[in-house]
Amino acid sequence: MRRPSRGRAFLDLEGPAPHIPPARVPPQKAAGPRNERVFLRMSSSTGPYPAGPAPAEGVAPKPARKLLIRTWGCQMNVYDSGRMADILAPLGYAPTESAEEADMVILNTCHIREKASEKVFSDLGRLRETKKARAAEGRQTVIAVAGCVAQAEGAEITARAPWVDIVLGPQTYHRLPEMVARASRAAGAVIETDFPAEDKFDHLPEARAPQGPVAFLTIQEGCDKFCSFCVVPYTRGAEFSRPAAAILAEARQLAANGAREIALLGQNVNAWAGASPDGHTWRLARLLRELAEIPGVARLRYTTSHPRDMDDDLISAHGEIPSLMPYLHLPVQSGSDKVLAAMNRGHKAELYIRLADRLREARPDLALTSDFIVGHPGETSADFEATMRLVERIGFAGAYSFKYSARPGTPAASQPGPVAEAEKDVRLQALQAVLRRQQDDFNRACVGRVVDVLVTGTGRHPGQVAGRSPWLQPVHATGAAPVGAVVSMQLRAALPNSLSATMAHEESAAA
Ligand code: SF4
Hints:
Elements (H helix, E strand, L loop, with lengths): L35 E3 L26 E7 L3 H14 L4 E3 L8 E6 L6 H21 L5 E5 H7 L1 H6 L5 E3 L7 H10 L4 E3 L21 E5 L1 E2 L10 H4 L4 E2 L2 H13 L4 E5 L7 E3 L5 E3 H8 L7 E5 L8 H9 L6 E3 L7 H6 L6 H14 L4 E8 L6 H14 L3 E6 L17 H26 L3 E9 L5 E5 L5 E5 L7 E9 L4 E8 L5
Helix pairs in contact: 8-9, 9-11, 12-13
Bound molecules: iron/sulfur cluster.
EC number: 2.8.4.3
Organism: Muricoccus roseus
Protein name: tRNA-2-methylthio-N(6)-dimethylallyladenosine synthase
């Protein structure tokens, strides 16, 4: 399937998040209302990534070089960082966590959070000093800025930070080896922020990174929805679905590398419509059914979805595919039809409520989570009350909630009726209080249940294992079990950031 033509924009973008959950959440310091997730969820990180494969016998190994990738933003950026490590491994780049020993540093950026660009430039300021110190010792350092800030800012980055060698957008990182070669030859920086006609995914190496028991797999990129407040259609381009055969091959590889849970990623993941091996177009439900057949894959998830793309088959799939976890992140943003129209969301509150009911009919234990923006231009108190009614009507297991803040260049930035900051604070506080209560209720309702927990590592205390429940809650239990095992545990208590459990019985990791 050809990639649709992609738009490009140079925006100075700041404001609320679109509906891809962030991969990392900084520690909260201040009390009071703030843009936050009200979630009991494990954070994730890029984690260590491996060096490339051992050179073939008789082939001289490449000189060891060190690569540091810093990742901000959503799980899709985490996935992209892993793939960049895969691409650079054959050039001899091995991972490091230290800027001082890194021969190459990649900042994989996100343009969702407020002041995203400024944070990147302050990191670049520190890297300039590191680069100078290394140069004084005769060591070269390649600095690259990737991701959505790179896409949005383009040449502005090297104008402000001329020590940057490479600027690359999310659609061009498969060309990294060529860019590294050009950067080491060229006097100036290499800037690649086009949306190339060739499919990036066709040019990526097989995923080699041992991603552990939980793996992310991007199946869809871009967005055609153009919500009033969101930058994604400008930075990631039009919706594009990877072909089913490529996704299935990558999933098999991930399973062979030890993945037990695969999370499918996309800005609008349930808009996925990919070419199938039999020449037809499959939708997400069919893809999930095929993925569920792969030996070793015990759990499937997908994120993030749009209400407009929840088709009947996908709703049914939640009741029919045992390995599809009872968890769905489905952003609604507002409960007011007037605000939803101003946001250009393309659906009404009633549609969302109907979807929630149907999903729960299909899978009664489904944990539904969402995103909210309060204080969108034109939102009145009555509109906000409609959001509160929707929240009470649905009952969420968690949510991300944000105050609206304008990003120049997006339609909402010029819409009339801005809401005063103080009023946004009051509304956010009220919303978060309800969402927090609902989350606590959900977690407490889990206590006493015996559930399958995927073991992901050791716990905080000696003799503990850590894992995740079917509803994506972090779980800690005393006992031993190998990473990757799916273990039956009884949930004993809901703690502030996790559930505690005791082992019921173990299932072999090799099941
Ligand atoms: S649907 Fe598209 S435009 Fe709307 S919030 Fe999600 S990514 Fe942004």
